[in-house]
Amino acid sequence: MADQPLRFGANLWNQYTDWPDFLDAARTVDRAGFDTLWTWDHLYPIVGSHEGPIYEGWLTLAAWAQATERVRIGLMVGANTFRNPAIVAKMATTLDHISGGRAILGIGAAWFRTEHEAFGIPYGEGAPERLRWLAEALPIMRGMLRGERPTAKGRYYHARDVRNDPPPIQDAMPILIGGGGEQVTLKLVARYGDANNVGGGFENVRRKEEILRRHCEQVGRDEREIERTAGMGVVIIRDSREEAQRVFEQTFERNGGAKLWTDQPVGTPEDVVERLKPYLEIGYRHFVFGFPSPHDRESIERLMTEVKPRLERRGG
Q1: Does a structural domain hold residue 88?
Q2: DSSP character for 15?
Q3: In this structure, which of 15, 232, 272, 300 has its CB flanked by the most CB atoms within 10 Å?
Q4: What is the pLDDT of residue 4?
């Protein structure tokens, strides 16, 4: 991965915002030169009070695809429990056409019980069952996106010679699998993923990287085929750490009175560069930064004009 270009992604939170600001933030990300643009696939807010507003993910992506020009677009990540996997592949293909070949299919096992119960969506008996559902879903989606006509007779998902016409614009639309579960999720990444996303700090990411490599070796997959992306948490950039912290606290209060996250990239441009440098040493080149409402434009711009150039000069 060390020879790959440095890539920055923006994850615009779709909770506690209004549509005009949310759409304008996506345009700002595109104009600023980010490589990827993401939002969540949730039906209730997941940070702060869940009793607040949130926009649906797939329809958001469709609107963003028409409002942007170059940035790649996806969910970070789609909730497999919400939709039939063959329908998801069809939706992702349609998004690829709307966007002119910029779609990424992000998918994960899902985890937020509250929204499942409220909307009447099957939640399963626990994470192991939802991971079994994801394991059934992935070969269907991957096959449809690769021009195959998969048939499946799993315990939860069924398909029969399912055709995906028209195919995606991309010859092989990437599937990004979110999560770092060491026994199952990372093995699914090794088998079916074109990309993975993990977070939780550098030491956690380094551990997951080692485990993913072992799974790739066990299943006979060239680990170089899988792009690694790291979730960096919420970024706030200002000229002083004190001012950045003040904005950070205001942002979380706005998001349903959320409890402050710790160990976040909040500070000066140089502070953020220092936080990213260790990831370069283990080969990571794609960093995804969270932007809660009000989607801080100053931080969006300064990531690209100050942080990314400095990181590139230091070996990125």
Answers
A1: yes
A2: B
A3: 272
A4: 80
